[in-house]
């Protein structure tokens, strides 16, 4: 079959038939096929000893000559095998490349009779090992393969060890405590500069092609009175594959302990291992609207409250609800302003039952109280004004349900009214059809009917409604808003008609953005559920148990201009699930980018137990858009190229207490946008251990805002370029 011109498309590693590297070419008759009569050559230096090519490079050149009777250009395929103890090729093929399935190298095209050649990539061959190589030709024009391989050739990789490099010409301090510039001789052959501090293990930095390198020992000069000159010895030498040079030694003064003066010095309280973890579900209510990152304000929320009036009857009477307080008669407005809180409103939480005005919310409860004046007019002039507080509480307490409680509390009913009656005419959803409208509520659904028949009638009317939404579609997210309309009947004492009517719609009276609901069926939360999307929850540190992590975050919240996660600064953290960017990198890899940085600057005396180790604590957290590692192109708010551009601190136990210091020689400017600290790994991980549960309970999604409460404060002095504090936990 090979002699008939039939294409060969299958190949075994040890096959006597060369692989079809150029696709389905033909194996032609002998007269037309290219021919490689001789064994390949290997070099440099292309010399043999006892019949074996001696190669002085781990990336040798393999070459051979192909002849073709067609006169066309040719290529060669080179295949390398291991050898046995006698130097004969085994069946094991050495993969010279991953560009094809056979691991063979293919040369470029050359004129027939000229040598073809390939260069073996680095890392494919081992020094001191003998290999066997063969090749096979290909006619690049006729697309015809040679029928078989060339004879074998053996070659040995024998790369001589380089001579030891010359030692450094000088080692001098580069102007920063503990950092040194190592100058190298011209034309040096060193691959590395190796350094050793006080007989510790040798470390190395790349030196190939460089005239000098910088070594940072991590030790900083202390106060002159604290150390004696020459208390450390730095040994420096050059090295390559041939060995290392003689060392150059330098004695210097320095430490990294914080015994000297520091620009930042926070004295921390001792950790309390029995301190109970905060209940992250226990969220404080707020009136602050905090939208997800880049979410615009809802334009429907910016219109001021306006009065709703019914028609004028034939006697000139008209009923109106919801007049702004400033438009009411002064004596009515004063009485309304002096109204007292009402306790026990229809099962509402205490802070809602006591609400007299405004909107307040947690992540799952929203409460709003509005003034509801009821004005009876004749020929445009008010003849009687009653005043009610209208309170609504929404509780997102179910997987696919939530509860609305409406309370109507009479504040003032003048004697001019013979009766005032209100009816829940409609309850409905906006935003998505998945939310089901409860509709009208009958009078008997109220606890205390919304009918008042005298000025001394002060009872409250309460209505509880359960709302439902369809959660049958999985991995879905819905935005809901709820609304309702009250119809009112006002009957004056001297009104000849049976009464005049008007209506009041909650959503037309300046509703708060706090009431906007987001529901979802995401599997990551375990069940379906809802939150008030414009309410930022608070994650609270257990500062008493993990003071090192709390102090680090507190320092940055206190001193940096972006004040990340501070509620009073209106500067929330924005959640980035997983901290992973679109390019697949992790924000932490940018901030904690220097290998062994935490071990380099961390202090064993500050660790919390024998098994504790230093850890790089970054703030803002990597799982936020506030992280310095988050690039601007992906929505990052504080992008930096490296953690070295952040405030850099570490913890150290001094005089019986752990302190948080700036790293010596790295004084903050307080214009930085991020921070990293070499602190206890136990404190770092422990402080964030509850966050996954917090994110699940608060149903945090991408770009959702939240606050960080460090539970720490300090008695501080900030002067003459230093910031010193004695910290305490709350």
Structure explained in plain terms:
The N terminus is likely disordered. The protein is mostly beta strands. The chain is about 5% helix and about 35% strand. The chain contains 7 helices and 44 strands. The chain is elongated and about 130 Å long.
The profile of the biggest β sheet is: 9 strands, mixed
Evaluate the radius of gyration. Answer: 41 Å
Proportion of residues in helical segments: under 10%
Question: What spatial form do the alpha-carbon principal axes imply?
Answer: elongated
The chain-level structural class is mainly beta
Low-confidence stretches: 1-11, 221-230, 255-260
Mean pLDDT: 88
Tell me what portion of residues adopts beta-strand conformation.
35-45%
Number of helices: 7
Write the topology of this structure.
Blueprint: E1 26-27, E2 41-43, E3 47-49, E4 52-55, E5 61-65, E6 74-83, E7 89-94, E8 105-106, E9 115-119, E10 130-139, E11 144-145, E12 153-157, E13 170-173, E14 179-183, E15 192-197, E16 203-206, E17 212-216, E18 232-240, E19 243-244, E20 248-252, E21 264-267, E22 308-309, E23 317-321, H1 330-337, H2 350-353, E24 358-361, E25 365-378, E26 381-395, E27 401-412, E28 417-430, E29 435-436, E30 451-452, E31 461-469, E32 477-492, E33 500-505, E34 517-520, E35 529-532, E36 538-540, H3 547-559, E37 573-574, H4 587-591, H5 597-601, E38 614-619, E39 647-654, E40 657-662, E41 675-680, H6 681-687, H7 691-697, E42 705-709, E43 712-719, E44 722-729
Parallel strand pairs: 1-11, 4-12, 21-44, 36-42, 39-41
Antiparallel strand pairs: 2-5, 3-4, 5-9, 6-7, 6-8, 6-10, 10-11, 10-12, 13-14, 14-17, 15-16, 15-18, 18-19, 18-20, 21-40, 22-23, 23-25, 24-25, 25-26, 26-27, 27-31, 28-30, 28-32, 29-31, 32-33, 32-34, 34-35, 37-42, 38-41, 39-40, 43-44
